[in-house]
Amino acid sequence: MDNLDLLVRLAWLLGAAMFVIGLMRMNSPATARNGNLVSAAGMAIAIGATAVLLLRDGVDVTAWVIIAIGIAVGGGLGLYTARSVAMTAMPQLVSLFNAVGGGAAALIAIEEYLSRSSGDIALDTTVFVVLDILIGAITFTGSLVASGKLMGLSFTPSRPVQVPGGRLVTIGLAAIVVLGSVYLFLGNESVPVMLLILAAALVFGVTMTLPIGGADMPVVISLLNSFTGTAVAMAGFVLNNVVLIIAGALVGASGAILTNLMAKAMNRSVMNIMIGGFGAGDSVAGAGAGPGGSVRELGVDDAAIQLAYASSVIVVPGYGLAVAQAQHAVRELAELLEERGVDVKYAIHPVAGRMPGHMNVLLAEANIPYPLLREMDDINPEFERADVALVIGANDVTNPAARRPGSPVSGMPILDVDHAKAIIVIKRSMGRGYAGIDNELYTNDKTGMLFADAKEGLANLVAAVKGL
Amino acid sequence: MTEELLANFTIFVMAILIGFAVISKVPATLHTPLMSGANSIHGIVLVGAMIIAATAHDSVGYLLALVAVAFATMNVVGGYVVTDRMLQMFRKRPSPPASSSDRTEG
């Protein structure tokens, strides 16, 4: 190891250390942005050091051209999509970035295996090559399907899709992987067998993700994120590169913890999510028949009067608000009410939006100060004292049926919206939420339904409140 | 097990434990940005993709390396930019000019 080699390795170590510090700083809203920048700086150092190493090794021109084109194309695409994506569509973009990361890790192992195939490959290299290809390929297709489901593409519908042959297909794919791996581990070198394992893993990524419902996608994306980290660590073993091992293991482990936290916030276990989609079972049809009751429709002017003469209002935003891009409209209404002396707060369910914490991002984007955004356990006791609860595009997380057993949403923590003195629900129709059941809140005597698109309904309310 | 492999494995296990320790108590507010932030970190695979590009010596190798470099760069650049976009929105108080101008428009 000469001096330059040593410097490059120290730079890699510095980069890895900055990843850890960056993640630590992302634990609190006040330091999170700075943490991300620290992590990005660590990445720049690690990549710069690699370029220096390649310069010293006298890499030929073709390699530099490939690296330059790859960075230009990938960087351009990444920059463009990250800048232009609407905040509502952000989960699917994260999943897409995850897919390409996993794909890159798998490609590294494939190329390494192909280029060494003629010579002798040590057993431990083969083991890591197979693991890298396996995990990387599963993440690649799995994340693409997850992303497609969130985008609502027709060939990847957001509802759970049963794969024909289901378990048999899975067992078949597992058999291919196990037999192929054993064959390679026994000391045989075979490119076709390696490609067969790759193909099985690619198919498995699809069949694993398709049966899971759209509502559970955030947890799946987080899990696949953890997988990619692991695949990158395996690529580190293949290339004998420490910074890949550290960063990959770090993401693999932190991603696993985060996945668990997310699943807990939804009151589900990770296993339960992976095995069956939400509302995929037969129980749905039976539980669908909730207690009947009539729905009271509310006019815009009545709703405006209720809100304007209340002393405290709790806004319950849901995904419907996000799709309608109504974050700014809700802030405008809240500011009008505050001017009239109404106390306005926001009740944020842990899984409001498409991912845990997603709603906070969307409301923060509309310039709503985050101390006003209250978490579920904190705000639930306050609903009793609230004059009006204004539910905008939220459904399952407000369904009182969750308190009773025997419904698909049973046991899910909910916002105690029904405890408020009056409830106004802005919703386009009586359509059902992800759980596919009727919401008993809508037939409550205290509830008035304002049928409108979230943005349009809020705009009408703003106009009506101004006219009072 | 070679000494080199043993050293790598030690680092691997320690890094896993650090990963567990770092993410202990995160408020649900930050789950999404944190996931996106961790997502950018595995873009470090770009280092591996560059090394592969340097050692490739046939057209298949060049093609694989090109795709790997492009994929990894997209992961790095996109990941950090989108995370930053999310996090810059977390403010304690709204910035006064933005909110007042919006209000007069409405």
What's the quick description here?
The complex is a heterodimer of chains A (468) and B (106). Chain A is built from 17 helices and six strands. With 468 residues, chain A is of the alpha/beta class.
Explain the overall architecture.
Chain A folds into three domains: 1-84; 96-281, no CATH class; 294-466, Rossmann fold, CATH 3.40.50.1220. Chain A contains 17 helices and six strands. Chain A has helices at residues 3-25, 32-56, 61-84, 90-116, 123-151, 166-185, 191-209, 217-239, 242-265, 270-275, 283-287, 300-308, 319-323, 327-339, 358-365, 376-379, 454-466; strands at residues 312-317, 343-348, 373-375, 388-392, 422-427, 447-451. In chain A, strands 3-2-1-4-5-6 form a six-stranded parallel beta sheet. The longest helix of chain A is centred in the first third of the chain and has 29 residues, at 123-151. By secondary structure, chain B is an all-alpha fold. Chain B has a domain at 27-90. In chain B, 76% of the residues lie in helices and 0% in strands. Chain B has five helices and no strands. Chain B has helices spanning 3-22, 31-41, 45-55, 59-87, 96-105. Classes of the chains: A alpha/beta (468), B mainly alpha (106). Chains A and B meet through helix 1, helix 2, helix 3, helix 4 and helix 8 of A and helix 1, helix 2, helix 3, helix 4 and helix 5 of B.
